Amino acid sequence: MSTNLLAQAQTTLSSLLEKLSDTQFSTMPKPSISLNQTGTIAGAAELQKNNIRLHPKLFEQNRQYFLQQVLPHELAHLVVYKYFGKVKPHGKEWQYLMQDIFHCPAHRTHKLDITQLGIKGFTYACDCGEIELSVRRHNKVKNKKQIYVCRTCKKELYFIADRVSE
C-alpha cells in the first residue's frame, strides 16, 4: 500500500516540478516525501529539510485529492521558503504558486472526513454553528492560553462536548 502511494506521490511531484521549469523557480531541488504525518493534518512541509510529510491513511482514502491538492499545497510552501524566505505561510507568494503555476485552488485547509482516524475531538460552537477542535487546541482553551474566534461571525467559540471519532 505505502509503496504504491509513495510512487504516485513521486510521479505527481515530478509533474509539479516540471511546471516550475520555465519559471523563476526552475532550480527548485526535488523534495523528499515521507508518509508519516499524523493527527488530522493531511500534509506538512518541512521547510529546512525540503521534505513533504503526508498522512498515509488520509492519502489512501483520498488519493486524487492528495495528488491534485495536498502535494501542490505543500510543494508551494517549500518553493516559497526557498525563493522568498520567511513570509506569510499562505500569503501572496504561496497563492501565486498555487493558482498561477500549479493551477489549483489556494485552500489553506482540507475538508476531508477524519472520523475514521479515531482521533478524539471537542465540539465548540458560535452563532454560526458547531466547530470541531483538536485535543491540542481544546487544551489551549482549557488552560486559558488561547481564545478561538469564528472566522465568519467573529464570536468567541465556546465548548459544548467531547467527541471520539470512530
TrEMBL record:
InterPro entries: SprT-like_domain (IPR006640), SprT_Zn_ribbon (IPR035240). It holds the Pfam family Zn_ribbon_SprT. This is SprT family zinc-dependent metalloprotease. GO terms for molecular function: metallopeptidase activity. NCBIfam families: PRK04860.1. Transmembrane segments: none annotated. It comes from the Bacteria. It comes from Agaribacter flavus. Keywords: Hydrolase, Metalloprotease, Protease. Residues 11-160 form the SprT-like domain. The lineage of its organism: Bacteria, Pseudomonadati, Pseudomonadota, Gammaproteobacteria, Alteromonadales.
